[in-house]
Structures are given as C-alpha cells and as structure tokens.
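Researcher: Next sequence.
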Amino acid sequence: MSDNASAAVQARHADAGTPAEKARVDKRLLTIRTIATLGGLLFGYDTGVISGALPFLARGAEEGGLGLTAFQESIVTSSLTMGAAIGAIVGGRLSDRYGRKKNIYTVAVIFLIGALGCALAPDYPALVAFRFFLGLAVGGASATVPVYLSEMAPVTIRGTMVARNELMIVTGQLLAYSFNAFIAVMWPQAHVWRWMLVIASVPAIGLWIGMHLLPESPRWLASQGRAADMWRVLNEVRMADGVEDEGRDIIHRVEEEAALGKGSWADLKTPWIGKITAIGIGLAALSQLTGVNGIMYYAPTILQTTGLGTQAALVATIANGVVSVVAVSIGIGFLKRMPRRRMMLIGQTGVVISLILLGSMFLLPESTARSYLVLLFMLTFLFSMQCFIGPTFWLMLSEIFPMRVRGLANGVAVFCNWMGNVIVAFAFPNLIAAVQGNTFFVFAVINACTLVFYAKFLPETFGRSLESLERHFEEKYS
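Model: Next structure:
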C-alpha cells in the first residue's frame, strides 16, 4: 500500500465501525448504485417502449404511422436487439481496455442520440437504423453496468447491489408501459409513437452527467497498475477495517495474472476459462430463450389476439411491468440469504409450468374471461422469471469470469444473451401469427431442457469474494 493510502487508512481506523463511518460508506454506495443503474433504466425503457409504439406504427401514413407489416414490426423490434448483441461484445472489450466508468458514460451519449433519432425517424429504414444504433448502447450498458457494480460492491452486499440493476431494468419497462398507456389514452393524436420514444432522452442525459461524478472500478484500476488510485477508491467505498485485506487480495490476484500478460481472446482457450465462459454463455442465452422478452415486447399484440382492443391491451400490459418490479424487489430479498443456483432452479421450474398453463388457455373458446386468464398466466410466468432468474443470472455473469478477461468474457456471454433475444424478438410475432397459443408449448419444451442444463452445470457463487471464486474455478475446471 502507498504511504498516502496507509495514512488515510490509519486516520480512519479510530472511526472504524462507527455509525458515522457506516453512514458515509452507505451513502457513497447508494450514489454509485443510483447513477450507474440509470443504464439499466434506459435498457428497460428502450426495450419495453416498442410494445406500445408498434400498434401505432402499423397504421398508415395518413394516421401518423409508418404502415408497418408484421414482418417489418419484427425487424424494428429485433434491430435493437441485434445492435445490443454487437454493443455487448464491443462494450465488454472496451471496458477492459478503457475502464468501466468511461464505457458507461460513452453509452449514455449513444442512448441520447439513438432516442432522438428514433423519435424523429421519417420512415421505416431510418427507424430500423436508429433502433440498431440505440441497441449498441443497450448492449454496452448490459455488459458493463453489472460488472461495474459487482467490482464496486463489498462481498456482503454484492448480490443485492448488482440486482438493483435488474430492478431498474424492469422499472424502465414499467415506465415505458405506463407512458405508452397514458399517452395513448390521454393524447391520442397522429405520431403519438414519437412521444413514446423520445422520453428516453431524459435519463440518458442524467446518466452522462452522473457518471462524471463516480469513481472508476478499483479492480480495473489495479489491473492497469494504478494501485494508488485503487486504494483511494477503496477508501471511499469500504469501512476502514476492510480496506487493507481486500486491497491486498486484489493486488495479489493482479500480480498472479500479470505473468500471463494482458487479457485477450487467446485467454478464452485456456481450459478452465473456456469452461466457465461456456457455462456463462449457456446461462446468458438460455435466460433469453425463456421467451420473456417475447412477452415483454409483444404483450399488447398477444392480448389483442385474444379479443382485447388496442387501448385495453396497452392498459392491461401495465400489469406486466408492475408484477416485474414487485417480483424483482422480492427476489433481491431472497438473494441476501438464498444460494444463486437454487434461485435459478426454482425460477426455471415456475417458468415451465406457467408456459404450459399459458398455452392451454388458448385452447379455450374466445371470450373476455379467456383474455384475462391469458394475462394471469403471463403474470405468473413473469413473476417466476423476474423474481428468481432475472436478478440472479445478471449477477452470476458479473461474478464468474476471471478479472483479466472479465469485460471480454462477460461481453461474449451477453452477446449470446442478446442473440437469443434477437431470435425471440424476430420469431415470436411470426409464431403467434402462425400457430397462436401453441407458441407457448414450444417455449415450454425449450425451458424444460434449460432446467436440466442448470441442474447439471450451474456453479454456486454465493458468499465468496470475486478473487476466491476465481481461484476456485481455476482449480475446479483446470
């Protein structure tokens, strides 16, 4: 430890463990979490808002729409997810090279430009192009924000701190559904979809400003040989009596990896890193193949096929957002005491059961009661997904990869997550049009296979530091 850092730690030891010091650290961590997770809020809003915009985009130009066909709707929706896939893998690599903080405020600029471009798009090709550009920011945020939070958090609250990003994602989706319904009901004018899309520019500005006030990840600083800066940040976000042990453990791990050189694609060929990356890819991709974003993107469309009108479907979709926010809030509480692997298995079981029941509702005669039964089982599906799987899989992706390739390996896994999203976003409306409710039976089979994968391969990460997990995986998978 440097002399200045040692002096800072010694000066604080007299106050170590006092309520004043704890309040100071908690306040700093709250500020970091609140600002950084605006990236999650934007992620959620930009992925959720399209569900309400699509019915208006399908209208003709004389009604302020772009006359989109079902195929074009799937392209508009999946163009963001394709951009997110590329943004994740590029963003993960850039966060290793230039830092987590710089990467996040760069994607804030892309969020702002993309939101304005989508809202002002004059035609279908321009909307697709700006949705793709916006997706670069969504992917970059999804690959970087959880890693940043994981590296900033003390081990005792790492699970809940990272899971707050998932809470902000579903809060963003809830805000999107709420603004969609409010604008559609209270201000039903031509070009209404443009107002839905432009709202995302406001939190993008907040994220850009806020990230300039936050510190860089101490683990990234250590990996760049900036030990003095690492000690300074740790002194900001840790109690005094925990700084030295954690700092020395980080530096020791950096020194162990320094002999191997800078992290690169070649490291993914190292047997144990390759195995844990493969598990991460499976975890990331299969969490999308639950079909959750098919329901989140196309909920109004699904409900319209059961007989509900456009405005009623948009209002009913708000329930999806409310249940998601409540479920994630409950899930964050579970993460404090329940092993990650158990969370995933419970959630996946609930997903399979809910999909079977959801598909079965489409076998009933068309009626208002059937519409609300479909909504009910959409909500049980979302509760299982958002309470148990949503917070946990993002957390595990931020935990399992070694420091030297954490951004890169996480970016690869999140790329696969978004490619799964692309498949779902593109296939879902076409499956609904072709086979209606049988779509949910298809996803039930996929998710039953996913349950087997989790039971066989998913590791446990609960209650261990990132450095101890890295040593454990190296020993286990070598």
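Model: The domain at 19-214 is CATH 1.20.1250.20 (Growth Hormone; Chain: A;). DSSP finds 20 helices and no strands in the chain.
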